[in-house]
Fold this protein.
Amino acid sequence: MPRMAMDLVFRHALVLDGSGAPGFEADVGVEGDRIATVGEAPPGRREVDARGLVLCPGFVDTHSHDDGAFLRHPGMEFKVAQGVTTDVSGNCGFSTVPNEPGRAYMPGDISGPGAGWTDLESYFSACMAKRPAINNLMLVGHNRVRAHVLGMERRAPAAEELAAMRGHVARAMAQGAAGLSTGLIYEPGRYARTEEVIALAREAASYGGLYVTHMRNEADRLLDAVDEAVTVAREASVGLHISHHKAAGRRNWGRVAESLAKADAAHRAGTSVTLDVYPYTAGSGPMWQYVNLDAIDREWAECVMIASCPDRREFEGRMVPDIAAGEGWTVEEAVQRILTAPRGKEVICIQFIIDEGDIETNLRHPRTFIGSDGIPVLKGNPHPRLFGTMPRVLARYVRERGVLTLEEAIRKMTSAPCERFGLVKRGLVREGWFADLVLFDPATVEDLATYEQPKREPRGIQMVIVNGQVAFEDGRHTGAGSGRMLRYRREA
Ligand code: ZN
Ligand code: CU
Protein backbone atom coordinates (compact mmCIF):
# COMPACT_ATOMS: atom_id res chain seq x y z
CA MET A 1 0.00 0.00 0.00
CA PRO A 2 1.58 3.33 -1.00
CA ARG A 3 2.02 5.76 1.88
CA MET A 4 2.38 9.50 1.91
CA ALA A 5 5.79 11.02 2.35
CA MET A 6 7.17 10.96 5.87
CA ASP A 7 8.70 13.87 7.74
CA LEU A 8 12.15 12.34 7.99
CA VAL A 9 13.66 9.15 6.61
CA PHE A 10 17.04 7.60 7.40
CA ARG A 11 18.24 5.43 4.51
CA HIS A 12 20.43 2.32 4.92
CA ALA A 13 21.22 2.90 8.58
CA LEU A 14 22.85 0.24 10.72
CA VAL A 15 20.04 0.04 13.28
CA LEU A 16 21.01 -0.93 16.83
CA ASP A 17 17.50 -1.05 18.20
CA GLY A 18 18.44 -0.70 21.87
CA SER A 19 17.51 -4.27 22.85
CA GLY A 20 21.10 -5.51 22.73
CA ALA A 21 20.38 -7.57 19.59
CA PRO A 22 22.82 -7.40 16.67
CA GLY A 23 22.42 -4.47 14.30
CA PHE A 24 20.62 -4.73 10.97
CA GLU A 25 20.47 -2.48 7.94
CA ALA A 26 17.15 -0.70 7.52
CA ASP A 27 15.40 2.50 6.55
CA VAL A 28 13.73 4.26 9.45
CA GLY A 29 10.91 6.75 8.92
CA VAL A 30 9.77 9.39 11.39
CA GLU A 31 6.33 10.97 11.31
CA GLY A 32 5.44 13.64 13.88
CA ASP A 33 6.94 12.64 17.22
CA ARG A 34 7.01 8.90 16.49
CA ILE A 35 8.96 6.27 14.62
CA ALA A 36 6.55 5.36 11.82
CA THR A 37 8.41 2.59 10.05
CA VAL A 38 11.46 0.36 10.45
CA GLY A 39 12.54 -1.66 7.41
CA GLU A 40 11.45 0.02 4.24
CA ALA A 41 10.23 3.58 4.14
CA PRO A 42 8.31 5.69 1.63
CA PRO A 43 9.93 8.92 0.42
CA GLY A 44 10.73 11.43 3.12
CA ARG A 45 10.22 15.18 2.99
CA ARG A 46 13.73 15.05 4.32
CA GLU A 47 16.03 12.13 3.53
CA VAL A 48 19.24 11.35 5.42
CA ASP A 49 21.84 9.04 3.91
CA ALA A 50 22.82 6.96 6.94
CA ARG A 51 25.07 4.46 5.19
CA GLY A 52 27.94 3.42 7.47
CA LEU A 53 26.35 5.09 10.49
CA VAL A 54 24.61 3.63 13.55
CA LEU A 55 21.04 4.71 14.25
CA CYS A 56 19.88 3.90 17.78
CA PRO A 57 17.50 5.23 20.44
CA GLY A 58 18.47 8.46 22.20
CA PHE A 59 20.67 8.00 25.25
CA VAL A 60 19.32 8.26 28.78
CA ASP A 61 21.59 9.94 31.32
CA THR A 62 20.35 8.10 34.40
CA HIS A 63 22.27 10.29 36.81
CA SER A 64 22.01 13.99 36.21
CA HIS A 65 21.87 17.13 38.31
CA ASP A 66 20.19 19.18 35.61
CA ASP A 67 17.05 20.27 37.49
CA GLY A 68 18.22 23.88 37.47
CA ALA A 69 19.94 23.59 34.09
CA PHE A 70 16.60 23.05 32.37
CA LEU A 71 15.86 26.66 33.33
CA ARG A 72 19.33 28.22 33.11
CA HIS A 73 20.56 26.35 30.02
CA PRO A 74 17.43 25.03 28.27
CA GLY A 75 19.49 24.33 25.14
CA MET A 76 21.21 21.59 27.22
CA GLU A 77 24.06 21.66 24.71
CA PHE A 78 26.39 19.62 26.94
CA LYS A 79 23.91 16.73 26.88
CA VAL A 80 22.47 16.97 23.36
CA ALA A 81 25.92 16.88 21.73
CA GLN A 82 26.54 13.52 23.47
CA GLY A 83 23.34 12.03 22.08
CA VAL A 84 21.45 12.30 25.37
CA THR A 85 17.72 12.78 24.76
CA THR A 86 16.49 12.16 28.32
CA ASP A 87 17.92 13.10 31.70
CA VAL A 88 16.98 11.60 35.04
CA SER A 89 17.35 14.59 37.40
CA GLY A 90 16.93 15.11 41.12
CA ASN A 91 19.72 12.73 42.13
CA CYS A 92 21.76 12.33 45.33
CA GLY A 93 18.90 13.70 47.43
CA PHE A 94 19.08 17.11 45.73
CA SER A 95 15.99 18.13 43.77
CA THR A 96 14.27 21.40 42.96
CA VAL A 97 11.09 20.19 44.60
CA PRO A 98 9.44 20.77 46.97
CA ASN A 99 10.17 24.47 46.77
CA GLU A 100 9.24 27.60 48.65
CA PRO A 101 9.88 30.51 46.25
CA GLY A 102 12.72 32.72 47.44
CA ARG A 103 13.98 30.33 50.10
CA ALA A 104 17.69 29.41 50.12
CA TYR A 105 17.69 25.76 51.14
CA MET A 106 21.34 24.93 51.60
CA PRO A 107 24.67 26.34 50.59
CA GLY A 108 26.01 24.96 47.32
CA ASP A 109 22.74 23.22 46.46
CA ILE A 110 23.65 21.42 43.24
CA SER A 111 20.04 21.24 42.09
CA GLY A 112 20.29 24.99 41.46
CA PRO A 113 18.37 27.98 42.86
CA GLY A 114 14.59 27.73 43.08
CA ALA A 115 12.37 30.34 41.50
CA GLY A 116 8.60 30.56 41.20
CA TRP A 117 7.50 26.95 41.47
CA THR A 118 6.29 25.02 44.51
CA ASP A 119 5.86 21.44 43.35
CA LEU A 120 6.76 19.14 40.47
CA GLU A 121 3.81 20.22 38.35
CA SER A 122 4.70 23.91 38.55
CA TYR A 123 8.43 23.17 38.11
CA PHE A 124 7.57 21.25 34.93
CA SER A 125 5.53 24.21 33.65
CA ALA A 126 8.46 26.57 34.30
CA CYS A 127 10.78 24.21 32.37
CA MET A 128 8.40 23.83 29.42
CA ALA A 129 8.11 27.60 29.12
CA LYS A 130 11.85 27.60 28.32
CA ARG A 131 11.41 25.05 25.48
CA PRO A 132 14.05 22.60 26.68
CA ALA A 133 16.12 20.68 24.12
CA ILE A 134 15.75 17.28 25.82
CA ASN A 135 13.37 15.31 28.02
CA ASN A 136 13.49 15.34 31.79
CA LEU A 137 12.37 12.75 34.31
CA MET A 138 12.60 13.66 37.98
CA LEU A 139 13.31 12.09 41.33
CA VAL A 140 12.26 13.76 44.56
CA GLY A 141 15.29 14.34 46.78
CA HIS A 142 15.45 13.45 50.45
CA ASN A 143 17.90 16.25 51.29
CA ARG A 144 15.49 18.75 49.79
CA VAL A 145 12.39 17.30 51.45
CA ARG A 146 14.18 17.21 54.80
CA ALA A 147 15.51 20.76 54.43
CA HIS A 148 12.02 21.94 53.46
CA VAL A 149 10.55 20.60 56.70
CA LEU A 150 13.48 20.55 59.15
CA GLY A 151 16.02 22.97 57.74
CA MET A 152 19.58 21.79 58.37
CA GLU A 153 18.74 20.31 61.79
CA ARG A 154 20.86 17.42 62.98
CA ARG A 155 18.09 15.37 64.53
CA ALA A 156 15.37 12.91 63.72
CA PRO A 157 12.02 14.39 62.67
CA ALA A 158 9.13 14.44 65.12
CA ALA A 159 6.08 12.42 64.10
CA GLU A 160 4.29 15.34 62.48
CA GLU A 161 7.47 16.43 60.70
CA LEU A 162 7.91 12.96 59.26
CA ALA A 163 4.28 13.02 58.17
CA ALA A 164 4.92 16.32 56.38
CA MET A 165 7.98 14.86 54.67
CA ARG A 166 5.99 11.84 53.56
CA GLY A 167 3.37 14.17 52.15
CA HIS A 168 5.95 15.96 49.98
CA VAL A 169 7.31 12.68 48.62
CA ALA A 170 3.79 11.41 47.90
CA ARG A 171 2.85 14.66 46.15
CA ALA A 172 5.90 14.50 43.87
CA MET A 173 5.19 10.85 43.10
CA ALA A 174 1.57 11.64 42.27
CA GLN A 175 2.82 14.31 39.87
CA GLY A 176 5.12 11.93 38.02
CA ALA A 177 8.42 11.57 39.90
CA ALA A 178 10.11 8.21 39.31
CA GLY A 179 11.15 7.72 42.90
CA LEU A 180 12.89 8.99 46.00
CA SER A 181 16.59 9.83 45.84
CA THR A 182 18.90 10.08 48.84
CA GLY A 183 22.38 11.48 49.39
CA LEU A 184 23.17 10.01 52.78
CA ILE A 185 26.75 11.30 52.94
CA TYR A 186 25.52 14.87 52.54
CA GLU A 187 24.02 17.40 54.89
CA PRO A 188 21.24 17.25 55.93
CA GLY A 189 20.48 13.72 54.68
CA ARG A 190 23.23 12.16 56.77
CA TYR A 191 21.27 12.90 59.94
CA ALA A 192 18.50 10.55 58.84
CA ARG A 193 18.34 7.15 60.44
CA THR A 194 17.47 4.18 58.28
CA GLU A 195 13.86 4.18 59.59
CA GLU A 196 13.27 7.69 58.28
CA VAL A 197 14.43 6.66 54.83
CA ILE A 198 12.25 3.54 54.91
CA ALA A 199 9.20 5.62 55.82
CA LEU A 200 9.79 7.94 52.86
CA ALA A 201 10.66 5.11 50.45
CA ARG A 202 7.26 3.57 51.28
CA GLU A 203 5.64 6.62 49.69
CA ALA A 204 7.60 5.97 46.50
CA ALA A 205 6.62 2.30 46.72
CA SER A 206 2.94 3.13 46.81
CA TYR A 207 3.36 4.57 43.30
CA GLY A 208 5.48 1.65 42.13
CA GLY A 209 8.51 3.97 42.12
CA LEU A 210 12.17 3.48 42.93
CA TYR A 211 14.57 4.11 45.78
CA VAL A 212 17.66 5.72 44.22
CA THR A 213 20.58 6.24 46.54
CA HIS A 214 23.94 7.91 46.87
CA MET A 215 24.79 5.60 49.72
CA ARG A 216 25.90 6.60 53.20
CA ASN A 217 29.44 5.47 52.51
CA GLU A 218 31.32 4.67 49.29
CA ALA A 219 34.71 4.03 50.87
CA ASP A 220 35.76 1.97 53.92
CA ARG A 221 32.16 1.15 54.86
CA LEU A 222 30.86 0.55 51.34
CA LEU A 223 29.51 -2.93 52.11
CA ASP A 224 27.61 -1.72 55.20
CA ALA A 225 26.11 1.01 53.05
CA VAL A 226 24.93 -1.54 50.47
CA ASP A 227 23.33 -3.49 53.33
CA GLU A 228 21.48 -0.36 54.45
CA ALA A 229 20.29 0.40 50.91
CA VAL A 230 19.01 -3.16 50.48
CA THR A 231 17.30 -3.01 53.87
CA VAL A 232 15.49 0.19 52.91
CA ALA A 233 14.34 -1.29 49.60
CA ARG A 234 13.27 -4.59 51.12
CA GLU A 235 11.39 -3.00 54.06
CA ALA A 236 9.66 -0.51 51.77
CA SER A 237 9.03 -3.07 49.00
CA VAL A 238 10.60 -0.86 46.39
CA GLY A 239 13.14 -1.32 43.58
CA LEU A 240 16.66 -0.21 44.50
CA HIS A 241 18.92 1.80 42.23
CA ILE A 242 22.46 2.48 43.49
CA SER A 243 23.97 5.72 42.16
CA HIS A 244 27.51 6.10 40.78
CA HIS A 245 28.65 2.77 42.16
CA LYS A 246 32.30 2.91 43.22
CA ALA A 247 34.83 1.96 45.91
CA ALA A 248 36.45 5.26 46.84
CA GLY A 249 40.01 5.61 48.10
CA ARG A 250 43.03 3.57 47.06
CA ARG A 251 42.79 1.07 49.91
CA ASN A 252 39.28 0.12 48.75
CA TRP A 253 40.03 -0.31 45.07
CA GLY A 254 38.79 -3.60 43.66
CA ARG A 255 35.99 -3.90 46.18
CA VAL A 256 33.17 -3.09 43.75
CA ALA A 257 33.27 -6.82 42.96
CA GLU A 258 32.18 -7.47 46.57
CA SER A 259 29.45 -4.85 46.58
CA LEU A 260 28.15 -6.10 43.21
CA ALA A 261 28.03 -9.60 44.71
CA LYS A 262 25.90 -8.22 47.56
CA ALA A 263 23.64 -6.42 45.09
CA ASP A 264 23.28 -9.63 43.08
CA ALA A 265 22.40 -11.64 46.18
CA ALA A 266 19.68 -9.12 47.08
CA HIS A 267 18.42 -9.19 43.50
CA ARG A 268 18.14 -12.98 43.54
CA ALA A 269 16.34 -12.76 46.89
CA GLY A 270 13.63 -10.57 45.37
CA THR A 271 14.70 -6.94 45.79
CA SER A 272 15.38 -5.73 42.27
CA VAL A 273 18.70 -3.87 42.11
CA THR A 274 20.15 -1.72 39.31
CA LEU A 275 23.08 0.69 39.38
CA ASP A 276 24.71 3.46 37.42
CA VAL A 277 28.35 4.28 36.77
CA TYR A 278 30.29 7.11 35.13
CA PRO A 279 33.35 6.28 33.01
CA TYR A 280 35.93 8.38 34.90
CA THR A 281 38.30 7.81 37.80
CA ALA A 282 37.32 11.10 39.48
CA GLY A 283 34.14 12.12 41.27
CA SER A 284 32.86 15.67 41.77
CA GLY A 285 30.57 17.58 44.09
CA PRO A 286 30.20 20.45 46.58
CA MET A 287 33.56 20.50 48.39
CA TRP A 288 32.35 21.59 51.84
CA GLN A 289 30.18 18.48 52.03
CA TYR A 290 33.25 16.21 52.03
CA VAL A 291 35.38 18.04 54.58
CA ASN A 292 35.54 18.17 58.35
CA LEU A 293 37.42 21.43 58.92
CA ASP A 294 38.61 20.23 62.33
CA ALA A 295 40.28 17.14 60.87
CA ILE A 296 41.20 17.69 57.24
CA ASP A 297 42.18 14.45 55.52
CA ARG A 298 45.49 15.17 53.83
CA GLU A 299 45.49 12.04 51.68
CA TRP A 300 42.09 13.07 50.30
CA ALA A 301 43.10 16.71 49.80
CA GLU A 302 46.07 15.65 47.69
CA CYS A 303 43.68 14.02 45.19
CA VAL A 304 41.48 17.11 44.80
CA MET A 305 41.19 19.53 41.87
CA ILE A 306 39.14 22.72 42.10
CA ALA A 307 36.37 22.82 39.49
CA SER A 308 34.56 26.00 40.42
CA CYS A 309 35.63 28.65 42.95
CA PRO A 310 33.77 31.99 42.79
CA ASP A 311 36.20 33.72 45.17
CA ARG A 312 39.38 32.68 43.39
CA ARG A 313 38.73 31.89 39.74
CA GLU A 314 42.47 31.38 39.21
CA PHE A 315 42.28 28.19 41.32
CA GLU A 316 39.89 26.53 38.87
CA GLY A 317 41.36 23.54 37.05
CA ARG A 318 44.27 23.23 39.51
CA MET A 319 45.13 20.55 42.06
CA VAL A 320 45.00 21.56 45.73
CA PRO A 321 48.70 20.72 46.36
CA ASP A 322 49.65 22.93 43.42
CA ILE A 323 47.51 25.79 44.73
CA ALA A 324 49.03 25.32 48.19
CA ALA A 325 52.58 25.43 46.84
CA GLY A 326 51.82 28.57 44.82
CA GLU A 327 50.35 30.40 47.80
CA GLY A 328 52.88 29.18 50.38
CA TRP A 329 50.19 27.22 52.28
CA THR A 330 50.12 23.67 53.55
CA VAL A 331 47.61 21.40 51.81
CA GLU A 332 45.37 21.48 54.89
CA GLU A 333 45.57 25.28 55.01
CA ALA A 334 44.61 25.47 51.34
CA VAL A 335 41.44 23.45 51.96
CA GLN A 336 40.67 25.61 55.01
CA ARG A 337 41.13 28.89 53.16
CA ILE A 338 39.21 27.83 50.07
CA LEU A 339 36.22 26.67 52.09
CA THR A 340 36.10 29.55 54.57
CA ALA A 341 36.30 32.30 51.92
CA PRO A 342 33.04 34.30 51.53
CA ARG A 343 31.57 32.03 48.85
CA GLY A 344 33.47 28.93 49.99
CA LYS A 345 30.37 26.79 50.21
CA GLU A 346 29.80 27.23 46.48
CA VAL A 347 33.10 25.59 45.63
CA ILE A 348 32.80 22.45 43.48
CA CYS A 349 35.70 20.02 43.59
CA ILE A 350 36.89 17.04 41.54
CA GLN A 351 38.39 14.10 43.46
CA PHE A 352 40.59 11.43 41.90
CA ILE A 353 39.52 8.53 44.09
CA ILE A 354 38.36 5.71 41.77
CA ASP A 355 40.09 2.69 40.26
CA GLU A 356 40.10 2.17 36.51
CA GLY A 357 39.60 -1.58 36.96
CA ASP A 358 36.48 -0.95 39.06
CA ILE A 359 34.97 1.10 36.23
CA GLU A 360 35.40 -1.87 33.90
CA THR A 361 33.95 -4.29 36.46
CA ASN A 362 30.93 -2.00 36.77
CA LEU A 363 30.50 -1.67 33.00
CA ARG A 364 30.55 -5.46 32.55
CA HIS A 365 27.73 -5.96 35.03
CA PRO A 366 24.41 -6.61 33.27
CA ARG A 367 22.35 -4.27 35.46
CA THR A 368 24.46 -1.13 35.36
CA PHE A 369 23.39 1.90 33.34
CA ILE A 370 25.42 4.96 32.40
CA GLY A 371 24.93 8.11 34.45
CA SER A 372 27.16 11.17 34.02
CA ASP A 373 26.66 12.72 37.48
CA GLY A 374 27.67 15.92 35.67
CA ILE A 375 27.20 19.16 37.60
CA PRO A 376 26.11 21.86 35.15
CA VAL A 377 28.09 24.75 36.61
CA LEU A 378 29.57 26.01 33.36
CA LYS A 379 31.66 28.76 34.95
CA GLY A 380 35.04 27.36 35.79
CA ASN A 381 36.36 23.90 34.96
CA PRO A 382 33.56 21.35 35.39
CA HIS A 383 34.34 17.63 35.51
CA PRO A 384 34.61 16.49 31.86
CA ARG A 385 31.85 13.93 32.44
CA LEU A 386 29.34 16.74 31.93
CA PHE A 387 30.26 16.86 28.23
CA GLY A 388 31.86 13.50 27.56
CA THR A 389 30.22 10.57 29.36
CA MET A 390 28.31 8.72 26.61
CA PRO A 391 30.90 9.05 23.81
CA ARG A 392 33.62 8.08 26.28
CA VAL A 393 31.90 4.75 26.95
CA LEU A 394 31.57 4.16 23.20
CA ALA A 395 35.14 5.15 22.37
CA ARG A 396 37.25 4.03 25.29
CA TYR A 397 35.37 1.08 26.74
CA VAL A 398 33.74 -0.34 23.60
CA ARG A 399 36.06 0.46 20.69
CA GLU A 400 39.46 0.72 22.36
CA ARG A 401 39.30 -1.69 25.27
CA GLY A 402 36.54 -4.09 24.23
CA VAL A 403 35.12 -4.13 27.76
CA LEU A 404 31.59 -4.43 26.37
CA THR A 405 30.06 -4.77 22.92
CA LEU A 406 28.54 -1.81 21.13
CA GLU A 407 25.11 -3.47 21.27
CA GLU A 408 25.40 -3.93 25.04
CA ALA A 409 26.64 -0.38 25.63
CA ILE A 410 23.69 1.00 23.64
CA ARG A 411 21.28 -1.21 25.59
CA LYS A 412 22.66 0.21 28.87
CA MET A 413 22.06 3.73 27.54
CA THR A 414 18.57 3.09 26.10
CA SER A 415 16.09 0.24 26.63
CA ALA A 416 17.46 -0.90 29.99
CA PRO A 417 17.14 2.48 31.77
CA CYS A 418 13.86 3.28 29.97
CA GLU A 419 12.33 0.11 31.33
CA ARG A 420 13.67 0.70 34.83
CA PHE A 421 12.72 4.38 35.01
CA GLY A 422 9.24 3.96 33.52
CA LEU A 423 9.88 5.78 30.24
CA VAL A 424 6.98 4.47 28.18
CA LYS A 425 7.59 3.68 24.50
CA ARG A 426 11.13 5.03 24.63
CA GLY A 427 14.45 3.23 24.38
CA LEU A 428 13.81 0.99 21.35
CA VAL A 429 13.71 1.66 17.63
CA ARG A 430 10.16 0.34 17.09
CA GLU A 431 7.20 1.48 15.04
CA GLY A 432 4.88 3.61 17.16
CA TRP A 433 7.57 4.45 19.72
CA PHE A 434 8.80 7.99 20.35
CA ALA A 435 11.38 9.24 17.88
CA ASP A 436 14.25 9.94 20.27
CA LEU A 437 17.17 8.91 18.07
CA VAL A 438 20.93 9.25 17.69
CA LEU A 439 22.88 8.85 14.46
CA PHE A 440 26.60 8.37 15.02
CA ASP A 441 29.78 7.08 13.43
CA PRO A 442 30.98 4.09 15.48
CA ALA A 443 34.48 4.40 14.02
CA THR A 444 35.08 8.00 15.09
CA VAL A 445 32.73 8.72 18.01
CA GLU A 446 34.86 10.06 20.85
CA ASP A 447 34.73 12.33 23.88
CA LEU A 448 37.00 15.36 23.60
CA ALA A 449 36.37 16.88 27.04
CA THR A 450 39.36 16.55 29.38
CA TYR A 451 40.17 17.81 32.87
CA GLU A 452 42.20 20.57 31.17
CA GLN A 453 39.60 21.38 28.50
CA PRO A 454 36.35 20.13 29.98
CA LYS A 455 33.83 21.97 27.82
CA ARG A 456 34.64 20.44 24.42
CA GLU A 457 31.76 18.69 22.70
CA PRO A 458 32.42 15.15 21.43
CA ARG A 459 33.01 14.14 17.82
CA GLY A 460 31.21 11.50 15.77
CA ILE A 461 27.67 12.27 16.89
CA GLN A 462 26.04 13.25 13.58
CA MET A 463 22.44 13.86 14.45
CA VAL A 464 20.19 13.84 17.51
CA ILE A 465 16.39 13.66 17.27
CA VAL A 466 14.18 14.52 20.25
CA ASN A 467 10.48 13.67 19.93
CA GLY A 468 10.80 13.69 16.14
CA GLN A 469 12.58 17.06 15.85
CA VAL A 470 16.22 17.55 14.90
CA ALA A 471 17.98 18.92 18.00
CA PHE A 472 21.57 18.60 16.79
CA GLU A 473 23.17 18.10 13.41
CA ASP A 474 26.79 18.26 12.16
CA GLY A 475 28.00 20.00 15.29
CA ARG A 476 25.20 22.54 15.30
CA HIS A 477 22.46 22.94 17.93
CA THR A 478 19.19 23.68 16.13
CA GLY A 479 17.27 25.20 19.05
CA ALA A 480 14.24 23.04 18.18
CA GLY A 481 13.28 22.91 21.86
CA SER A 482 11.28 19.69 21.51
CA GLY A 483 12.06 18.20 24.93
CA ARG A 484 9.28 17.21 27.33
CA MET A 485 8.79 16.70 31.02
CA LEU A 486 8.21 12.96 31.42
CA ARG A 487 6.12 11.32 34.10
CA TYR A 488 6.92 7.91 35.50
CA ARG A 489 5.16 5.11 33.64
CA ARG A 490 2.95 7.57 31.73
CA GLU A 491 3.14 7.86 27.97
CA ALA A 492 4.04 11.43 26.99
ZN1 ZN B 1 25.96 11.42 44.42
CU1 CU C 1 25.04 12.79 41.87
